[in-house]
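Task: sequence design from structure.
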């Protein structure tokens, strides 16, 4: 498996490989939900609290929790794409740590 690294000076667009999120369940905590599309979250690595919003096709993907049964340690917002790769269902409202992540 390729090495993952954090580079705080450089952020790249997501290539939808999912490697950054496949082991993040223990760090990404949904503290409270308002319906199924809005969530108050806590990212334990950085102690960041943030509000996550899910909409459109991402909400349809998020509803399919069974699709991630093969990845029990993944971020609760990660979902597989139809063909290949993964989708962050909160990409536009993801926490700062995720925004700055660079997969090397």
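Answer:
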């Amino acid at each position: 498996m390729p090495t993952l690294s954090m580079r705080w000076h450089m952020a790249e667009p997501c290539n939808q490989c999912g490697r950054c999120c496949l082991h993040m369940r223990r760090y990404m905590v949904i503290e409270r939900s308002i319906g199924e599309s809005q969530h108050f979250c806590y990212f334990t690595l950085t102690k960041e609290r943030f509000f996550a919003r899910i909409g459109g096709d991402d909400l349809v993907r998020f509803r399919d929790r069974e699709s991630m049964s093969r990845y029990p340690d993944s971020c609760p917002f990660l979902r597989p794409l139809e063909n290949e790769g993964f989708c962050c269902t909160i990409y536009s409202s993801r926490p700062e740590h995720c925004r700055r992540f660079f997969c090397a």
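Confidence is low (pLDDT under 50) at residues 1-10.
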